[in-house]
Amino acid sequence: MSFTTKGTGPSRPHTADPADHNELGEYFDSLRAQAKDYVNTEKKVLTLFIYEKIGKAVGGLVGIVISAIAVILFLVFGSVALALYLGSLLASVALGFLIVAGLYLLVFIIVHFMAHKAIRNSTMLNVINSFYDEND
Fold first, then answer.
1. Cα pseudo-dihedral 41, 136, 124, 42, rounded to 10
2. CB atoms within 10 A of CB 53
């Protein structure tokens, strides 16, 4: 079977060389294999990157939790000591605990109404920066 085009001269037969198709097929098979390898490699790199970021976040979180536990224990024992001391001065242990509780309520009110937004924004910024810190 031959194909002709109008106005281009004599008709030329359309020949399909099997060697050309094998080479092209092999090329596309190789290209597909390389693309598959590239995607798998990128997936592994992304997985390692995610694990690194999670590891840094968990490591930082462990440090914060340990510090928070230490501060909470200090506050609890310090508060009990202060309450007992004030109670001995005022001859009423209950009054000493009430005064310490009042101090905590005052601190809570000040922090809640004055510095709540600043603390939230600072915390948010620190968390975001910890994930995008390129120097670590």
1. -10
2. 15
DSSP 51-62: HHHHHHHHHHHH
CB 87 within 8 A of CB 94: yes
Q: What is the residue-wise DSSP string for 86-103?
A: HHHHHT-HHHHHHHHHHH
Distance CA 85, CA 102 (A): 15
pLDDT in tens, 46-80: 999 888 888 888 888 898 899 999 999 999 999 99
Domain extent listing, the chain: 16-131
Longest dimension (CA), the chain: 122
pTM here is 0.57
Give me 58's structure tokens: 């968990």
Q: Which tens digit of pLDDT belongs to each residue from 5-41?
A: 444 445 544 444 445 446 778 888 888 999 999 999 9
